[in-house]
Design goal:
Largest sheet: none
Distance between the termini: 65 Å
Oligomer: single chain
Number of strands: 0
Strand content: under 5%
Helix content: over 70%
Length: 172
Amino acid sequence: MSSPNQFDDCAPDSAASALGAAARWTPFLLWTAAAAAASWGCAFAYLWGCGLVGVEPKQQGFADWLGSMDLNVSGLAAVFLLGVVLVPPLEELLFLGVIYRSLRAKSGPWLAIPISAALFAVAHCSVSGLPPTFVTGCILACAFERTGSLRLPIAIHCTYNFVAIAVTLLTR
């Protein structure tokens, strides 16, 4: 006797496969969202604190440049390709894959995390942008320490950069 639905025979396997994939990706996506939110929360708290004490924080040179550009579609695509797809993996390879790993081998994670985060911050910012970028570097190093893989820090970094570029472009 034929079944009323031609896909009934494969439904349990398909559902189990989909649920298995969701179960594997859910923690990764939650960590990425939480870490990106924490990084952005720190950045906004820093900007709010600067406003309280009357300090004008200076943007990174890239943000200044991006805010001043009159970009067409191909220019926007290039900015997102560089800032979201290409640069974050390369930076994480350098700061976590090389610098953090070598520091951790010599001093353990409690010293390697702040040192690699400080180097990450110095490479990214003007002096006024160091605190939020340092916290972001610590979050990225902790994600790497926790997972032993560069995938999560890269995803966090890509997400952070995507939001930063989008906000910069939308508020100019």
